[in-house]
């Protein structure tokens, strides 16, 4: 493209799509990011073109003709058919305002192309370029092309058996209802996708909570085991206390020494008995406290296990709900494909009827 010969007259950014040549129903994106789409005017040849470049490759190179129609299929998406390139281009805009600006510029360029063609004619009847689409193509909305005076001349040479104004109004209404239905199915499909994402997020949160509860349960079990070991140690220590004191005096001692020794031993026995009694009472108290703690921990463990089972049931229900939502999304996607295919066939029929309109 020569910059001296062609100059851009309008530019915007949009996500570029082309119809799948195999199915003629699905859209193939030209890239992951939005591209610059521009209208160019060739002063030498007096033609207008829509061009979009992806690096060094021309993604869109479409010459605008008077018979082309730009159709808005949703609030942010529009498309037009190019029979010379044997494809259908689609543009997804960031806002409805950008889509409206592009559509208005398309009409201006289309009108300018029509005037340029009429000016280039030498008074003869205008001839229409071959814009007829084959049966497997996705046509634009051809009914809009009956607005321009040049298009009326093109239709004068068609069959006299074409439908009248009432039939054309009915076809326009059918096309409008089909576009509205397509938008509604798209909205429902995106709503189901959003619901599926929310269910997946809730499932992840439930999994994280269950993992945290499992860690707490393991910690409580370890603490209970440690306390059981401590109780066993205290019981063994209480059983090992000395029960009596052996005598070490020989029979050769005198009576006084023996009596003094008896008194001393009695005092020692009383002291040992008091010490043993206090030690046993302390051990019994600590053992009872430890047993109470163990019982409390076992009760807590039972509660945690109950919560864990309830959480696992909630997880299973969430999984079932997620699978159901996935199945609904799949059915909605299949139904949307069927609706889009029916809309495509309807537009093909409308295109053939519009071609035969006077």
UniProtKB/TrEMBL annotation:
Single Gene Ontology MF annotation: identical protein binding
Subcellular location: Cytoplasm; Postsynaptic density
Signal peptide: none
Predominant place of localization: cytoplasm
Pfam family, one: WH1
Keywords per UniProt: Coiled coil, Cytoplasm, Phosphoprotein, Synapse
PROSITE patterns: WH1
Entry's Gene Ontology BP terms: G protein-coupled glutamate receptor signaling pathway; negative regulation of calcineurin-NFAT signaling cascade; negative regulation of interleukin-2 production
Domain WH1 stretches: 1-113
Similarity remark: Belongs to the Homer family.
Protein name per UniProt: Homer protein homolog 3
Upper taxonomic lineage: Eukaryota, Metazoa, Chordata, Craniata, Vertebrata
């Amino acid at each position: 493209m020569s910059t001296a010969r062609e100059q851009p007259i309008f530019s915007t950014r949009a996500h570029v799509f082309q119809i799948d040549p195999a199915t003629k129903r699905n859209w193939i994106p030209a890239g992951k990011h939005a591209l610059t789409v521009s209208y160019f005017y060739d002063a030498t040849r007096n033609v207008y073109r829509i061009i979009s470049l992806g690096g060094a490759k021309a993604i869109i190179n479409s010459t605008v003709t008077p018979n082309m129609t730009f159709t808005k299929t949703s609030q942010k998406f529009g498309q037009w058919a190019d029979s010379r390139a044997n494809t259908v281009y689609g543009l997804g805009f960031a806002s409805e305002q950008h889509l409206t600006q592009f559509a208005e510029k398309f009409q201006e360029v289309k009108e300018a192309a029509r005037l340029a063609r009429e000016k280039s004619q030498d008074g003869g009847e205008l001839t229409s370029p071959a814009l007829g689409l084959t049966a497997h193509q996705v046509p634009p909305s051809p009914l809009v092309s009956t607005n321009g005076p040049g298009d009326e001349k093109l239709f004068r040479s068609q069959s006299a058996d074409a439908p009248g104004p009432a039939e054309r109004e009915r076809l326009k209404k059918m096309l409008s209802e089909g576009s509205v239905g397509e938008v509604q199915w798209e909205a429902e499909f995106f709503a189901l996708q959003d619901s599926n994402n929310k269910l997946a997020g809730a499932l992840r949160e439930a999994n994280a909570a269950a993992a945290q509860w499992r860690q707490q349960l393991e910690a409580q079990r370890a603490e209970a085991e440690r306390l059981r070991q401590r109780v066993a140690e205290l019981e063994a220590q209480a059983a090992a206390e000395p029960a009596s004191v052996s005598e070490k005096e020989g029979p050769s001692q005198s009576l006084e020494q023996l009596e003094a020794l008896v008194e001393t031993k009695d005092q020692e026995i009383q002291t040992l008995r008091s010490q043993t009694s206090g030690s046993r009472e302390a051990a019994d108290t600590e053992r009872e406290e430890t047993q109470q703690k163990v019982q409390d921990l076992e009760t807590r463990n039972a509660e945690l296990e109950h919560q864990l089972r309830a959480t696992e049931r909630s997880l299973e229900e969430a999984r079932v709900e997620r699978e159901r939502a996935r199945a609904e999304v799949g059915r909605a996607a299949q139904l949307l494909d069927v609706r889009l295919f029916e809309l495509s066939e309807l537009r093909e029929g409308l295109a053939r009827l519009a071609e035969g309109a006077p």
